[in-house]
Design goal:
Elements: H1 6-9, E1 25-36, E2 39-51, E3 56-60, H2 67-74, E4 82-94, E5 100-104, H3 113-118, E6 123-126, H4 130-133, H5 140-151, H6 156-169, H7 175-178, H8 188-200, E7 206-210, H9 218-235, E8 238-243, H10 246-252, E9 255-260, E10 263-269, H11 270-275, H12 280-287, E11 339-342, E12 345-347
Parallel strand pairs: 3-8, 3-9, 6-7, 7-8
Antiparallel strand pairs: 1-2, 1-4, 4-5, 9-10, 10-12, 11-12
The protein binds iron/sulfur cluster.
């Protein structure tokens, strides 16, 4: 059955028109926990960030910091035994009559018509492992066609033609033949291109790309990044780009949110993050990037220790056991809050007033 687009259908309260820089999506104080036999894992523990129309928000952090779980929470596709326990995800859109509306996505039941319209329609996602994200028993063309039919009014034949057109747009050669192929018949790079085609074929307003180039070689990685940026410009959509790679962030992001143990610890425009990082964790991440100016045999700086398991969250500032600027008697006593340290620049660290 075709899902009606949310922007044409939702009878929600009319909000005030957002100004030019108002976010299209605001995640506020999001908590997503996993209820395991060994205890509660606080995978996302109060994360807040915003995405602006046509812009790319880069979410960066080490493995296990909660960035992928936060992204899945937006679409309400968190795997069990995970559950969103608190927070708001405010989505701003215009309805048929051109009026601005706001919806708290988390107030919608996961299997509701509205949520199905958002998931894959208004907000699409590209997953880390394209090979395992496609069904292995259906052709890529069938999966693409079904996605298009689910979110549009196209009949089977038109949707099939649109699927071929999309495979062509993402640079898959001979798309009329390749549309019949199964995922295992494609290379990793082509499979990722097909996944991008599927995510964009519904004309989403927001694209979430979760480590979309991690499994690819560097040449294919560069091609996929260029492709995503070109399609983003053509479609005018916002993007959330999740990665642990600050080099990729420098290339694609307009704004950056740095996550540590389920929380955003610093957020700022991308140039500000690279030129003027404030949080000790962000500074440590930046100094651990390999540089071509480094001396031969020079050791690459690393962050001491490893990220604690979210089940064993340290008291106070969660970074304090690894922080080179740890202040005894303060940092382990209470958790710092995000506070402004400049224009559009926020940080949570007791080195700064207001945190
Ligand atoms: Fe380091 Fe303290 Fe700042 Fe945490 S609050 S990052 S431990 S200085």
């Amino acid at each position: 059955m075709t899902e009606t687009r949310l922007r044409d259908a939702m009878p929600t309260a009319i909000g005030t028109p957002p100004d030019a820089v108002a976010p299209i999506l605001q995640v506020q104080n999001l908590h997503t926990h996993f209820f395991t036999g060994e205890g509660i894992v606080h995978a996302v523990d109060g994360a807040s960030f915003a995405v602006h129309p046509g812009k790319t928000l880069g979410i960066v952090g080490e493995s296990g910091c909660g960035k992928s779980v936060a992204a899945k929470s937006i679409l309400q596709i968190v795997d069990k035994p995970g559950r969103i326990v608190d927070g708001e995800i405010l989505y701003t859109y215009t309805d048929k009559s051109g009026r601005y509306r706001h919806e708290n996505i988390l107030s919608l039941p996961s299997d509701s018509r509205q949520m199905k319209s958002i998931r894959g329609g208004e907000i699409s996602m590209i997953f880390q492992e394209p090979m395992s994200s496609f069904s292995p028993i259906h052709s890529v063309g069938n999966q693409l066609t079904e996605t298009i039919r689910l979110h549009t009014d196209m009949d089977q034949r038109t949707a099939r033609e649109a699927a071929i057109e999309w495979l062509s747009r993402v640079g898959i050669p001979n798309p009329a033949r390749r549309v019949e192929e199964y995922p295992y018949q494609m290379s990793g790079g082509q499979c990722q291109r097909a996944m991008i085609a599927m995510a964009l074929s519904t004309n989403p307003r927001i694209l979430i790309a979760d480590e979309p180039t991690t499994a690819l070689d560097v040449t294919t990685q560069a091609q996929i990044l260029n492709l995503l940026q070109r399609l983003q410009a053509e479609q005018g959509m916002a993007m959330i780009f999740i990665t642990h790679d600050l080099g990729v962030i420098a290339e694609v992001a307009d704004e950056v949110a740095v996550m540590y143990l389920g929380r955003v610890v610093e957020r700022a425009p991308v140039q500000e993050i690279f030129r003027n990082p404030q949080h000790p964790y962000t500074r440590a991440l930046l100094t651990s990037i390999p540089s071509i100016e480094a001396q031969p045999r020079q050791r690459l700086p690393t962050i001491s220790g490893s990220i604690p398991h979210p089940q064993n969250r340290p008291p106070g500032c969660p970074f304090h056991p690894r922080c080179p600027e740890y202040m005894a008697g303060t940092c382990e006593q209470k958790e710092p809050q995000l506070a402004s340290v400049g224009t559009n620049h926020e940080v949570s660290c007791f080195l700064y007033p207001g945190c």
